[in-house]
TrEMBL record:
Belongs to the cation transport ATPase (P-type) (TC 3.A.3) family. Type IV subfamily. Mg(2+) binds at residues 412, 414, 832, 836. GO terms for biological process: Golgi organization; phospholipid translocation. Keywords: ATP-binding, Magnesium, Membrane, Metal-binding, Nucleotide-binding, Translocase, Transmembrane, Transmembrane helix. It is an enzyme of class 7 (translocase). InterPro entries: ATPase_P-typ_cyto_dom_N, ATPase_P-typ_P_site, ATPase_P-typ_TM_dom_sf, ATPase_P-typ_transduc_dom_A_sf, ATPase_P-type_domA, HAD-like_sf, HAD_sf, P-type_ATPase_IV. One of its GO terms (cellular component) is trans-Golgi network. It is a multi-pass membrane protein. Its EC number is 7.6.2.1. The active site is at 412 (4-aspartylphosphate intermediate). This is Phospholipid-transporting ATPase. The keyword DNA-binding does not apply. PANTHER family: PHOSPHOLIPID-TRANSPORTING ATPASE IC, PROBABLE PHOSPHOLIPID-TRANSPORTING ATPASE.
Amino acid sequence: MSEAEEAEEPPAVEVRPTEGPWKVKANDRDFCNLPEFQKKVFLCFKKSKYAGNAIKTYKYNFFTFLPLNLFEQFKRAANIYFLVLLILQIIPQISTLPWYTTLVPLVIVLAITAIKDLVDDLARHRMDKEVNNRKCDVLLDGRFKESKWMDIHVGDVVRLKKNDFVPADIVLLSSSNPNSLCYVETAELDGETNLKFKMGLKVTDEHLQEEQQIANFDAMIECEEPNNRLDKFTGVMKWNNEAFPLDLDNMLLRGCKIRNTEVLHGLVIFAGADTKIMRNGGKTRFKRTKIDELMNYMVYSIFVLLILVSAGLAIGNTFWYDQIGSNAWYLYDGKQYNSSYRGFLSFWGYIIVLNTMVPISLYVSVEVIRLGQSKFINWDLQMYYPEKDTAAKARTTTLNEQLGQIEYIFSDKTGTLTQNIMAFKKCTISGHTYGRHRKRLSKIPVDLKWNKYADGRFQFYDHSLISCIQSKKNPDVHEFFKLLCLCHTVMVEQKEDINELVYQAASPDEGALVTAARNFGFVFLSRTQDTITVSELGVEKTYQMLALLDFNSDRKRMSVILRFPDGKIRLYCKGADTVVYERLHPSSKHKERTQSALEAFANETLRTLCLCYKDITEEEFDSWARKHKAASVSMSDREAALDEVYELIERNLQLIGATAIEDKLQDGVPDTIAKLAKANIKIWVLTGDKKETAENIGYSCQLLTGDMQIHYGEDVKNNTESSGRQVKIKEPFFAAQENNALIITGGWLNEILYEKKKKRRRLRLRKFKKKTIPKDGQPMDEREKEQRQIDFVDMACECSAVICCRVTPKQKANVVNLVKKYKKAVTLSIGDGANDVNMIKTADIGVGISGQEGMQAVMSSDYAFAQFRYLQRLLLVHGRWSYIRMCKFLRYFFYKNFAFTLVHFWYSFFSGYSSQIAYEDWFITLYNVCYSSLPVLLVGLLDQDVSDSLSIRFPKLYLPGPQGVMFNYKNFFISLFHGIFTSLIIFFIPYGAFRQTMGQDGEAPSDYQSFAVVTASSLTIIVNLQISLNTSYWTFVNFFAVLGSIAIYFGIMFDIHSAGIHVIFTSAFTFTGVASNTFRQPYLWLTIILTVGISLLPVICIEFLQKTIWPSEGDKIQRNRRKYEEQVEVVKKPEPFQRGRRSRRSAYAFSHSRGYADLIASGRSIRRKPTQRPIPEINQAENS
């Protein structure tokens, strides 16, 4: 199967679509509201199936914001937990803490999150409003009137002008260009800046030029239902009792930009959500990080632990009351409750007392940290692109730590890895190579001032080629450039206002070759249906074009047959070396030297084309022309018939030389890919380009290297099919020793993953209702299909690099989804066009490239910046730091709250399991707000184990993130047991010290209030010093936070224990004078010091042993940080790869789609030549 067939299945020839046609009547809005086009929305309510043109990317409106946002927030287990807790605190019998201590923090958390979501959604509202309020001319009441995009309806006729965006999917009716030709730029759709042409039907071009004619237009369009296929459209227009076929060449898709066309008219077929660009957008998914999911499960675990502990203490209270409490007259509370009921109330009391195991401040702190990390990304000047004045932008604040856990990156090619700018770099003519780097070559570019047509931006450094051209001693050099300016399908347009010629090429490759010929003095000036006019070193010549043999992906070449001014006939051909060498005459010269040059070009990952010619006699041409004419009117398999005829004339060719074009990568792409690969991140390239182009870029950007074993989809297909039946045996697909890469096509994916023909297969199986193996190779059941998908993912994930070419936007998203589904891996997608939107939304992290082409990808992304190279800093610096900071924060936060809360547990054994709290009320209220929050918050915002430069220099430091080793259930239980140990020390050392103690004044400071103050003081000092031990990056702010938190604790404690505040609020402040009385006793100070020392000493010893005996990679680099920072990183130049693979020979520079041959041959694209053409200044412009 050819690549073109793999990319898309050509529609069958049909008069009307077979499945429920989509009907549109021109200039008739009421037609869309007929009962037959109504669909049920809810119960008996119906509305038209035709969407309006207003788009909606926002999530909320005025009425749905509150309920939907609360619903989303209460998906978080902790919020439900606190809501239940609030309800329990309202019940007087079991409430041990006031209800407002939970209500106020819960409302604050919900409000902060809601405000953040509201701000994000308002930005989406603004963008939608800006798009929906764009203006264009719509035909209303027989006249064109200015209207907003949102007011456009299906069936309207719109008038668009140069540089306008297309507001909906429209059928082109007519334009100001001859024969209703129109040029569009599709950067918003696919990121490509080269122009594409569209044509109106001949009948509409002839009859729909005037406003009154268009107002009387009443055709009926029947076409396919709205879908997401950007490369396919099938329909028919019925007008004046005739039917006219419509295809994609007649369609202008929403998001395209009108270029080089003054005015055009079009009929709206699909609007708003039905347009292909919106259909490719996919659903807006709510993304959550792995740490968020893990925190949810940990909250469940803590809740289970809380229930078990509370149940145990409630049982203890029941037995205690039976044996002791009921017999102690001084404990009588006046309530006639039995022991079981008291145990039941004690259970709920402990649920409230111990609730601080998961404090609500945790989620406030997490949101603050994420917001701060997002701001650091926005403020990073090293991710600012001055050429486009574009800074990096974190468009979400909830996914930062996920950037430190990426395992797979899925990247678009055009506009993401490459600039989509082609440059003529080298050539070989008659076995002599020009443009290669030689010591004697000047670094000064050649002077082209002698050529009035030269482009000042063109640079070439081999002066010997210019000398050869100007000397006219080597005819092969002239023949070489003559071929380049004659053998192509480039069209030229004259801008009369500035006397400039503009080249329109089907691909940037062709444009680069014609531009190179122009700069060397061989200038393509104009063409008609059967002539080409060029300027050869200032001499204008016109050649008669006898035949144009266009390129396709099977032929991999194109040819033109010309009659020279002197009457001789010559065929010029250019194509991939694999097909050209097969067709050379045995006597052709310089084959070996040209082959060596091609290998050298390939080693530099340049895109190559071989150039050759053949002189044809008049008799030979006449004989061939008759066969060509017969094939061109064949009604069955016309393309195959033409290919056979082309083969007859394209043989016994004479080799002239070869060209080498560079597809310019964005700056820093190879280095970025190399760094990410060292971080064990696998990169997949998903592109719509042809296989050879994608593979060539793979080598250019060092995604593919010379030591890799390249595997192709068609070669490994049998492996996946056979292994699909061996479910129990898990064997690797490739030899473990090899460094493998996989290159597959969209057509191969369809065969393996069964994305096509599903409906047809279901109908067939339903009809026969028996177990027969379908002839088209489709699986019999979902289980077999799933196994095939698993095999594909396993095979692809064994490879260091994967390239998927000729894939549709939907296939891109499906590939990402398969890796997420079966590998449970964290994925990142990066792209720049609307065809990447679905992929960006499907991945865990979506990154949009901004500042170069359209903004569709950016609007749907989570992060945006201007260049691919910034990805390494986003992941290796910001992502890694965010992950480490969040893990440290969570581990410490759980620890400090276990240490704080479990003191109540130990105290319960000495308080009759009565839900009595071990601390003062106000200490419980302020502990997580004032006494322990700031140091850990700063660690979550500012901590870094190594600098940003070392993080990028040593990508191996990134590995703990994808492995998830810094925060998991093991770390959670370590924090739990550390908290248990600390709470034991905090409770039992003061408890032992208070027994049989006598103070200096003869009084025993062993009362409950003094004990509460000593334990609270010990806890505050311990948790603040503990975070100091965990801090890697010290600043003045950290010192201030640690010492300030301790100082704040003592300051507030002395204030709330003062007599003055007790007089004002007698019932609220009951610890009057306790602090001053307690801290008068040196014995209690020693108790606090002993408690702190015993708590921290084991931690210090473990940290010392771990960093000394079992240091991590980060510890080693941190230890030698200064030495590494003084050293200059040496960038090793990659070795050139070997060419001995079939793919490298096919890295030819051609468009992956057909050229403009059909258009040229029809004569419809040719403008009327001016009577007197001024000397133009020619620029090859793809973007005017």
